[in-house]
Design brief:
Blueprint: E1 10-18, E2 21-30, E3 33-42, E4 75-81, H1 86-107, H2 115-133, E5 137-140, H3 141-147, E6 157-161, H4 163-172, E7 177-185, E8 191-200, E9 205-213, E10 234-239, E11 242-247, H5 249-259, H6 262-275, H7 279-287, H8 293-304
Parallel strand pairs: 6-9
Antiparallel strand pairs: 1-2, 2-3, 3-4, 5-6, 7-8, 8-9, 10-11
Length: 305
Amino acid sequence: MSPEPAVPSELVSGPDLGGGYLHQLSIDRQGPITTFTHHAQEGGQDAAGPPIAELGVLGFVHPPSPCMFGGPRCWHRRYLLPFSSMSKVRFAYQRHRFVLETMLRQTTGLSPVPFEEAFQELLRKVADPLRAEGVEWYVAGSGSVRLVGGSVAPHDIDLGTTRAGVDRLGELLAEYLIEPVAPTDRADGDLVVGGRAFVGTPKAGARVEWAVPLDPDPSQRWEEFSPTPGVTRTLEVRYRDGPVRVSRPEYALVRAAARGRQDVMDAALSAVRRLGADLELLDALLARSALPPAARVSLRARARG
């Protein structure tokens, strides 16, 4: 996204407290599009701080220049939306700070994620409508490994879907949104359109994320998160009384290996062996990973069992 506008921002909420941080919501109106910015800075004793973790673990970024509200160490999440989306953005902003303490505890492993409860609520809200409307969606990330029987405890629930599915998920999960469905930038620098929700109660729920790239690379085969239907390699599993689609565990395996997540890698490796490795997919993922050549060869050999 472009640097922050030079014109003064208008504060529309805050200062508010949550999760050890001081939160503020501002807008910058530029023609038909408004930049909504969720600012957060450590709140000290006033916010029952210090916080458990920095907000980078939840996708927040530091602005390239000092923030007029939070100074040089302010964290930001920005959304580009029409001004008429104000009420939706403010709702998501308020819910975000209410559940922030729980999300930070889950992300850092201090509290377990109630995966079963949150996933059942997620299915209750989205499964039937998306199936009836023919919208492609599936569970991705470590959640997919969990659903194929892997021994892993996800810190959140990642969903894959199409560009149309991104918007529809936002509608179906409106009461749980912590970030509006919008074009935004993520901590890794990627520009995406997506949303986030905390499905469940503020004390017992799970973060659910879904997004697709704003400028997908058509040369990348079998991306796990693609705006185009039928790109991702998935499989169907039975969950309680019905079918659920999940991305193949090779995705989680390569990602976990690149990030040094031994627990997820071990669970994904076990799942790949049990299901039978999709070597065509695995080779494509390894080729574009950041793993050194020797590590790629080793991981491929282990996946084949």
